[in-house]
Amino acid sequence: MAGILGTGIQDGLLLKPVHYQWAMDLYDQAVANTWFPNEIQLGQDLADWKKMTDEERHALEFLMSYFNPNELLVNKALAFGVYPYVNAAECHLYLAKQMWEEANHCMSFEYVLETFPIDRDKAYAAHVEVPSMAAKEAFETKYIKRMTEETLDITTTEGKKDFVKNLIAYNIILEGIWFYSGFMVALSFRQRNLLRNFGSLMDWIIRDESLHLKFGINLILTTLEENEDLQTPEFAEEIKQMILDAVEMEEQYNRDLLPKGILGLNADYVNQYVRYLTDRRLEELGFGAHYKVSNPAKWMAAANDTLELVNFFESTNTSYEVNATKDKK
What we know:
It is an enzyme of class 1 (oxidoreductase). By secondary structure, the protein is an all-alpha fold. The chain has helices at 21-32, 46-51, 54-81, 89-115, 120-129, 131-148, 157-191, 196-226, 233-257, 267-284, 301-304, 309-317.
């Protein structure tokens, strides 16, 4: 096998022997984690919605406006920017399950829009009309356009760099930092004993996203390891700068999300969490921490540290896993 990258249609058609066991393990875990939004009685949260403040409702609407289109944007990044350039069958299996999960997340946020009295047209328009949200989307689409509107040659150093940058944009920045920032705000309602069923929905989404993040990190590190031409200080600095630029955009977005503060949260608190998360992502990619700030939301630790994922699943979610006992006879 030549490596994880390649575009041969007839390559990657045999699953065994598995070359990248981490991808197979993540696929098996993802299948075990399968869930459906309507299993949660979201309507029970309507009583909370009625007693929430305008600022609290704005935050929830703002999050739905961002999450809903971006789940589908991730699928485009996977379909056009990752799947065609990866050879290993086990990676294709995982990516197919990830794409289904992103669709399931989109339907989860539709369920929220259907359940609560949220103006759908306004929510749909926000990702274009709110400048901080539109700026984040423009940042992401810049990288996927390299794959969809131009010809990318994965055998060249430049082509491989564009492949990695797309992974950084979607797996690390969008899913690993921007989504997690929103997850923390979303789960803050439950911390104040509000929207408990919505919180359960977010738990399941985060469980999926933590695997997406782990797959992306493994794919990036494997690509870098297998391609010495990418192992330059200049390219490392370019990747790091992408991530730091993204933090600035997220900080502005959070100021629009929380103009006055809610639930004991304000934009500064959320942005410290963003910086803490960013340091974790930088470390997972082999960089040192940049911001060196403490985690202001320590109650989120189980969901956001990929190194703790195995313990997180075993201690928290085993009761829900599909076929959880199949290997324990």
